[in-house]
């Protein structure tokens, strides 16, 4: 229902804009406008692209992972200072002095590491994930296509209804002119009007009925 309301709002917006510029839009032009600005289609497309990206990443699960780790800190804590020297491979004989170990000066220590993770065995989990994402991709493609198809059909129905109403209004406008012409020339009591007063009332009733239908169709079009 929300999607149909959204489409109707775009159709009205496009129609008003074309009327303001004295233009008459074809169905292809209306559909092109809606197709280019449909939030529902964009959402379905983004979901499809997200699934495709996830599948692409998962399919590269066998590639090694390279990581870089760096850590810098400043401390005068005896334990942290001593292990900092060991980690930096800068421990010297003078560092074993009892006073230096128990009361070290504050110093900055830096530790860095470069490593590679290579998955040798994953138990089929990653392969199963790739298969699942492949099926998800197909499903999202179908959803995207179905969304476009549904909107195309809905726009076609609305556009067709507007066309039918316009044709009815044209026909009623022509019929109204003919009835008004007959009423204008209708002379009560004339030999050419054998139905007399009842005929006049019938013609006026028909004119009122036509006017009512015109107002009704105009309201529906708006």
Short overview:
This protein is mainly alpha-helical and 222 residues long. It is 68% helix and 10% strand.
Furnish the topology, listing elements before pairings:
Blueprint (H helix, E strand, L loop, with lengths): L1 H19 L6 H11 L1 H20 L6 E11 L2 H10 L10 H5 L4 E11 L7 H61 L10 H26 L1
Antiparallel strand pairs: 1-2
Summed up, the helix count is 7
Structural class: mainly alpha
Strand order of the largest sheet: 1-2
Mean pLDDT: 78
Question: How would a textbook summarize the main sheet?
Answer: 2 strands, antiparallel
Describe this structure in words.
It is rod-shaped, with a radius of gyration of 41 Å. Strands 1-2 form a two-stranded antiparallel ribbon. Helices cover 68% and strands 10% of the residues. The chain has helices at 2-20, 27-37, 39-58, 78-87, 98-102, 125-185, 196-221, and strands at 65-75, 107-117. The two termini are 19 Å apart. Helix 6 (125-185) packs antiparallel against helix 7 (196-221). It is mainly alpha-helical and 222 residues long. It is built from 7 helices and 2 strands; from the N terminus they run αααβααβαα.
Give descriptors for this structure:
222 residues, mainly alpha, two-stranded antiparallel ribbon, 2 strands, 68% helix, 10% strand
């Amino acid at each position: 229902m929300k999607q149909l309301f959204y489409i109707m709002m775009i159709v009205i917006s496009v129609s008003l804009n074309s009327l303001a510029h004295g233009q008459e839009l074809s169905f292809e032009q209306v559909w092109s406008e809606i197709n280019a600005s449909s939030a529902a289609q964009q959402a379905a497309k983004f979901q499809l692209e997200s699934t495709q990206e996830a599948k692409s990443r998962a399919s590269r699960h066998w590639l090694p992972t390279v990581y870089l780790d760096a850590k810098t800190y400043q401390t005068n804590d005896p334990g942290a200072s001593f292990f900092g020297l060991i980690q930096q491979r800068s421990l010297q004989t003078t560092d074993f002095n009892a006073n230096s170990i128990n009361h070290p000066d504050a110093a900055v220590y830096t530790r860095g590491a470069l490593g590679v993770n290579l998955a040798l065995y994953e138990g089929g989990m990653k392969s199963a994930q790739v298969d699942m994402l492949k099926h998800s991709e197909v499903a999202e493609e179908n959803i995207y296509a179905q969304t476009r198809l549904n909107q195309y059909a809905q726009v076609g129905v609305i556009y067709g209804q507007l066309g039918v109403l316009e044709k009815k209004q044209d026909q009623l406008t022509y019929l109204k002119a003919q009835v008004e012409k007959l009423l204008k020339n209708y002379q009560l009591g004339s030999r050419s009007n054998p139905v007399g007063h009842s005929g006049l009332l019938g013609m006026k009733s028909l004119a009122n009925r036509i006017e009512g239908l015109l107002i009704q169709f105009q309201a529906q079009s708006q």
